[in-house]
């Protein structure tokens, strides 16, 4: 089934990882895939641009259907393969509402993380300000406290007892936080959530290869 | 039905408008609503914070269910009231895929617009750079050309012949572009799309009241 699917991706990309977890959860192994290098600017190669005019990864194709936005690909896969693999949208309207809410808050979470760990990448040297980076760090701390609080109110996953699309899209952000040195002592519920989900088969199967090669991450967030 | 719903909103907010269009399309008129003032910081009032810890608008409640993120509320309303009013997710997998793709590209579109029209609001005076604003304008132009191209390939709406969730979430961005002076001569397909959708009953019913009071907008984007 997955032979008519192609994923162009890069290692450690949160959006790419979302799609890879969704593919695993829907039992869509065996898709065509190509690991590209962000450093070598391969996301701007003709191969990518032919499918994705934004020159971004993931770039995802299923037959003639192109769905490059990571959230879009996750929704598409769940809709198209609804009865296959893990059911990623719960039947309960209450859980569904919470799932949608957390999914979209997850975009803010990801943005606040990026604004700290990739500040120098996004902002040209002559436009950088200590005051801006400090503000970004404070915003990330506020965000982390929100999520720490959310996890105190639910069972084990973001929208309740079962694994849903909210976990598919938010877990890669949480894993990246710990890769960049977040303290599980300071954020124990996030630490618990990370430890639970990192053992999930779909997550293990899609773990960023360069994190496996070099298990030690950065300590950018150790004081956050 | 809509008596058990409450929407706190402000006039001219793109995220608020999305939810209001969705409510109209699902025939959910008559909900409790309160127009708050962003200038008076009413989005940080206790009334909002009690429901929405982020202190943002829209803030939306249906019975005990809280769904504040605008995309989340639109998905929730379509799922909960699937057979009521306009069907906002098409059955065709191809249209659905395109709808999801455009919805999530719509977030980038909105972000690129904000980075230009609200640059001074987002960036403290001592951190502003002409080079940054120039780059933001170039990024918005690139984005506009992408959407102009997309609209050349579809019938009348963003995901095909029918009005879908993609239109619900992206139209308020397009309307804001024209409110801020975008040239329909330079972007004729966007202009056509704007003119078609602004006559739609759900859009007319939810048109920002301060735009009605003062029909002349700004010219911030006239040279874009």
From TrEMBL, chains A, B:
Q: Where is the GST N-terminal domain?
A: 3-85
Gene3D superfamilies reported in the protein's UniProt record: 1.20.1050.10, Glutaredoxin (3.40.30.10)
A GO CC annotation recorded here is: mitochondrion
Q: Which InterPro entries match?
A: Glutathione-S-Trfase_C-like, Glutathione-S-Trfase_C_sf, Glutathione_S-Trfase, Glutathione_S-Trfase_N, GST_C, Thioredoxin-like_sf
Chain ranges of the GST C-terminal domain: 92-218
List each coiled-coil range: none
Q: Name one GO molecular function term.
A: glutathione transferase activity
Name the Pfam families on file.
Answer: GST_C_3, GST_N
The protein's matches in SUPFAM superfamilies, at most eight in alphabetical order, are given as: GST C-terminal domain-like, Thioredoxin-like
Q: Which PROSITE patterns match?
A: GST_CTER, GST_NTER
Example of a GO biological process term: L-phenylalanine catabolic process
The protein's name is Glutathione S-transferase rho
